[in-house]
Amino acid sequence: MVDELSGSSTPAPPEAKAGADAPTVLVVDDEPSNLASIEKIFQRDGMRVLTAPSARAALDLLRGHRVEVVLTDLMMPGTSGIELLRAIKQLAPDTEVVLMTAYGTVETAVQAMREGAYDFVEKPLKRMTIIKSVRKAAERRSLVAENRSLRQELKLLTKREIIGSSPALRRVLDVATQAAPSSATVLVLGESGTGKELVARYIHDHSARRHGPFVAVNCSAIPETILEAELFGHERGAFTGAFARREGRFAKAAGGTLFLDEIGELSPSVQVKLLRVLQENEYEPIGGDTVRADVRIVAATNKDLRAEIAAGRFREDLFYRLNVIAITVPPLRARREDIPLLVDHFLGVYCAKNNRGRLEAPREVIARLLDYSFPGNVRELENVIERAAVLCRGEKLSVEDLPESIRESLAAAPETITFSVGTPLDEVERRLIRETLRYAHGDKSVAAQLLGISTRTIYRKLGEIEG
Q: Which InterPro entries match (predicted)?
């Protein structure tokens, strides 16, 4: 067996010490002499080696060790190599498997590959052949793991979530959750930067169309002269410059959701065509025939559409078609208790994006952010945290890392609470705790300090009140 594995009569190379990044290979064979020979070969090549005389012993080792590659005999008493391969893919899906056998046939090789084997080597084994096969299997596992890690990192940097637990935000999500399974058109209202597109994506992700495309169109970002063609598409030769047929956004969103942001910017002619889609579920590409519209429309605007109707800039019948279910996203100043959660989320995103250690936001920084009105809403807060993550020189943010407008913002004065004579003490306590919590932006530890009681007492009193 040693002669076969060596592949020549030259002396075997000296054993190399396994490095920190050396792969671990698990060798499975019911013949002790084969195990010993293969173990020495891999050790001399600088790999970490584990050995097992049976499938059961191999699986026990896999449960307690990280193994990059399993090299297993195909024909073993009890559990075969193919059966072991299936068990490995259940227990450790990322581990690559190389099968070795003296009974190699094309059918066996094909079956092994279908079951997830990386490679198939035949006996008599050659030392360089098995080293090359196992090395390549370990490289493949490393590349797959790296690719998965990069995808996760990319997902973290690109996926945008709705962050917060304030009552105002929960009310929005409650309505969105109820509306999502229906086919009703939804109109999302709110100031710029509040996260209207995130709400639209939330509706899509919780609808029956979630496996279809989500296509977003900013109606104010596309010139009026080409917006109709962008939305509905056009046929070749439909107008000057139309050298080829082009699908519109309605066609691209087929089976999914079309999000029309800044819907108040639509021209009168496009409003007419959109109204037909909402009424008849069909549209006509420019220069083309009628097409069935298989889309769910979610629209959004920061304009007062009723005022636009009064001014003659927006069709009233289109407004009522869009306004089947209206959701108003609250401005950030109406959900200040979500600011600490948003800060923590954005710090995680932008520290990872800029390849730096995770920063913390101390209490004084959070307090200054809570005192600021954020006219640009969540989008402005995100920009502030991205800037701070880039400019911060320590392990924690400081007030100096914030823009001047926020550093110089003044805290709002606490309100006065009045009670009528004879108000029960329970009612006084209830209102005092709730108003103090509101002033402290939901921070129970701050509220407890202001009231001169322990945080535990706040939790207990809240429990009594809510009970």
A: AAA+_ATPase, AAA_lid_NorR, CheY-like_superfamily, Homeodomain-like_sf, HTH_Fis, P-loop_NTPase, Sig_transdc_resp-reg_receiver, Sigma_54_int
Helical spans, DSSP H, in 45-126: 55-64, 81-91, 106-114
Q: What is the DSSP code (8-state) at residue 363?
A: H
Closest to 68 measured CA to CA, from 97, 38, 91: 97
* Alpha-carbon gap, residue 98 to 106, rounded angstroms: 15
Q: Which amino acid is located at 183 in the chain?
A: S
| 55-69, 96-110, 365-379, 403-417: least confident range | 403-417
* CA–CA separation, 293 and 64 (whole Å): 55
Angle at the Cα of 210 from the Cα atoms of 204 and 211, rounded to 5 degrees = 150
DSSP 47: -
432 compared with 57, residue with greater pLDDT: 57
Show which of 154, 185, 204 is a domain's final residue: 154
Kindly give the pairing relationship between strand 96-101 and strand 186-189.
unpaired
Residue 417 lies in a domain: no
Q: Can you tell me whether residue 114 is helix, strand or coil?
A: helix
* pTM of the predicted protein model: 0.59
Q: Which long-range contacts (CB under 8 A, 24 or more apart) does 420-428 make?
A: none
Question: Are 58 and 186 in a shared domain?
Answer: no
